[in-house]
Amino acid sequence: METCADCGHFAPAGAPACLTCAAQVDELVERGWRAFAAAWGEADAADEVELARMVADEPDKHEWRVVDAAYDRLRCPGCGERLTRGPVGCGPCDLHHGFRFSAIEIDRPGVPPGNEHGLRVNVAVVRRPHWTSANELLARRLALPILLAGHLPDTTRAQAAAAILRTRGRAAYEDYIYREWVR
Prior knowledge:
mainly alpha; 0% strand; 183 residues; globular; single chain
């Protein structure tokens, strides 16, 4: 794990406040989109939007990074924000956010089963910070570097970390996850 020069967190745990870390989180999604779009031969912006609409209509047929990137390219008909990123309670954003979890998850080589799911959920939370509590956002963003490094906490450790965050605060939580989860 590398430290971000701009915020001092293990990258990309400074997201969404740190723009460098936020760009790294977005790049996780964009890499998947670039490969997908290249395979389709899509070159211009109009074709890209049409391709994004096709993906959004069939999220269960595409890899999660492609689905998330497609939503970034579409505007919500209800609120005008990027699809799934609108205000809490926006009907179309809520609906498509739920659909995102029907997308395909493929664990990366060399990571424990379920790592990709953990990465996907944490990325979704960090990219939509206004939809969750401050503690949930903190927990998800601080876990990102651990998941990217290929680690996955078991249920006991994850529950212990949540209890530590609730009762002892951020510093104790950070110490616990980086000490216990990265062994």
